[in-house]
Write a structure and sequence with these properties.
Blueprint: H1 11-19, H2 25-43, E1 46-49, H3 51-66, E2 77-81, H4 108-115, E3 119-124, H5 158-165, E4 171-175, H6 182-188, E5 191-194, E6 215-219, H7 222-232, E7 262-266, H8 276-291, E8 295-299, H9 307-322, H10 341-352, H11 355-368, H12 373-394, E9 400-404, H13 420-424, H14 431-436, E10 440-448, E11 451-459, H15 464-477
The structure holds glutamine.
């Protein structure tokens, strides 16, 4: 196998290639590290590259394979969003506040994937504390979209998405609080899945909004997403919201037929905000699924238009509480030259956080304050219940819900930075699943103006299997997911 093909291969293909001795893990890791050093800079996708450690681990993996040892991900490369704590390796959350934070432990997701044999190539860039939809709020600068370097790859897990789309790494972790896996997956033309809330441990995942945050994966095929999800998911006693239900064999069951599967098409998603060509791509994708035996049924989510304001109240409230721990005392950024303790706190937080994070902390503190709690926070929690109930009602009629992932293809860097509301509206189709704790996935379903767009599938709680089966079936009939941006071929 010529070395230049390695970069385009999926995890499943790399695994097979290594087991058939076509190439070694070391060859894979070295090929990708070379690509990261050639292209990583133009995309700004990585904050840290862990080359030395990856090479050592690849050599060990090769030794294990040589004596017939096997593990599900042995010798396979991936990258982690720089929000998952990694033992002894900078974990910055793309914030000046944590620019010097070296965790003394691994997040459970990192630990699980390591135990399965995966090799980390580095930590990916992101929006600061995962707050953003364009990857422009990072302390380390914005990430570029491999399809056009003037465009945003989406956010907040833009570094992971950009690295996978540009074939710097076949898969990467991400987190999704309001769409941060699905939206960048759609805008960069790759597969991204956010599992059910509680499916994947949040232990060691730096908190943004605890009732919404969920870890997941980016990959170049649904099959790879199934492989990785199976290894990272599962009960964790260190996370009180982790749910103790067995992890199914996602990969083993992926070929199941979708004949008779009822897919709900949300009427409200095809409103004025949706780009016509984007809508067309989604409808065409559904025809492919119909040809495979799925039944498309129109459904309503009557309160879904309230999801953006509801989310930005709940998420900001939770973030204002979670981020109060960054006071400069025990770890992270610490201001210099202060008169007293109060000024020390003010300067540390004033200098350590970026503008978007401060905006959220202020909004969150406001909606939780005594005089406004009932009017905003409590109201938002009630609307959250209504939205969850809408999904529940819909799932009494259908097995899956389908729609667009984003209103339009990738937008220009800088285009929405001065208008937070405009930026927030980009999450209109993804936020509902987070508010209701449901699993969601985006898969590439076509191109609009030469830019990829995504089909979003949302499942029932712990219904990841049917999402994956449906997505896999689609990818067997289409080749959108195999396209690679010209300059990264
Ligand atoms: N774009 C949303 C926000 O800014 C979602 C971010 C996320 O999912 N982490 O909050």
């Amino acid at each position: 196998m010529p070395a230049q093909n390695i970069q385009n291969m999926t995890l499943c293909a790399l695994k097979q290639g290594m087991s058939e001795k076509e190439f070694t893990s070391l060859e894979v890791i070295e090929t990708l590290l070379t690509r990261i050093s050639e292209h990583g800079g133009s995309l700004n996708a990585f904050i840290t590259v862990t080359a030395e450690q990856a090479i050592t681990e690849a050599k060990n993996a090769d030794k294990l394979m040589a004596v017939g040892k096997n593990k599900p991900l042995l010798g396979l490369p991936l990258a982690h969003k720089d929000l998952f704590c990694t033992d002894g390796i900078l974990t910055s959350c793309a914030s000046k506040m944590l620019h010097n934070f070296i965790p003394p432990y691994d997040a459970s997701v990192v630990k699980n994937l390591k135990a399965s044999g995966a090799i980390m190539l580095g930590k990916t860039n992101m929006d600061e504390f995962a707050m953003g939809s364009s990857n422009e709020t990072s302390y380390y600068g914005s990430v570029k979209n491999p399809w056009n370097l003037e465009l945003s790859p989406g956010g907040s897990s833009g570094g992971s998405a950009s690295a996978v789309a540009a074939c710097l790494v076949p898969a990467a972790t991400g987190t999704d609080t309001g769409g941060s896996i699905r939206q960048p997956a759609a805008l960069t033309g790759i597969t991204g899945i956010k599992p059910t809330y509680g499916r994947v441990s949040r232990f060691g995942m730096i908190a943004f909004a605890s009732s919404l945050d969920q870890g997941g994966v980016f990959a170049r095929s649904v099959e790879d997403a199934a492989l990785l999800l199976g290894e990272m998911a599962g009960f964790d006693e260190n996370d009180s919201t982790s749910v103790d239900v067995p992890v199914p064999d996602y990969l083993g069951s992926i070929n199941q037929s979708i004949k008779g599967l009822k897919i709900g098409l949300v009427r409200q998603y095809f409103d004025a905000g949706l780009d016509d060509n984007n809508a067309k791509a989604v409808r065409e994708a559904l025809e492919v699924l119909e040809d495979q035996g799925a039944e498309i049924i129109e459904i309503d989510l009557p309160n879904i238009e309230l999801s953006v304001p509801t989310y930005y109240v709940v998420a900001s409230a939770e973030c204002s509480s979670n981020l109060s721990r960054y006071d400069g005392v025990r770890f992270g950024y610490r201001a210099e030259n202060y008169k007293d303790l109060n000024e020390f706190y003010c300067k540390t937080r004033g200098e350590g956080f970026g503008a978007e994070v401060k905006r959220r902390i202020m909004t969150g503190t406001y909606v939780l304050s005594a005089g406004y709690y009932d009017a905003y926070y409590l109201k938002a929690q009630k609307v959250r219940q209504l939205i969850s109930q809408d999904f529940k009602n819909a799932f009494s009629k259908v097995d899956l819900i389908a729609g667009p992932t984003t209103p339009s293809p990738a937008f220009a860097l800088g285009a929405k930075m001065d208008d937070p509301i405009e930026m927030y509206l980009n999450d209109i189709y993804t936020i509902g699943a987070n508010l209701a704790g449901l699993p969601g996935m985006s898969i590439p379903c076509g191109f609009v103006n030469d830019l990829p767009v995504g089909l979003q599938l949302v499942g029932k709680h712990f219904g990841e299997e049917s999402l994956l089966q449906c997505g896999h079936r689609y990818q067997q009939k289409t080749d959108w997911h195999t396209r690679v941006p010209e300059r990264f071929k």
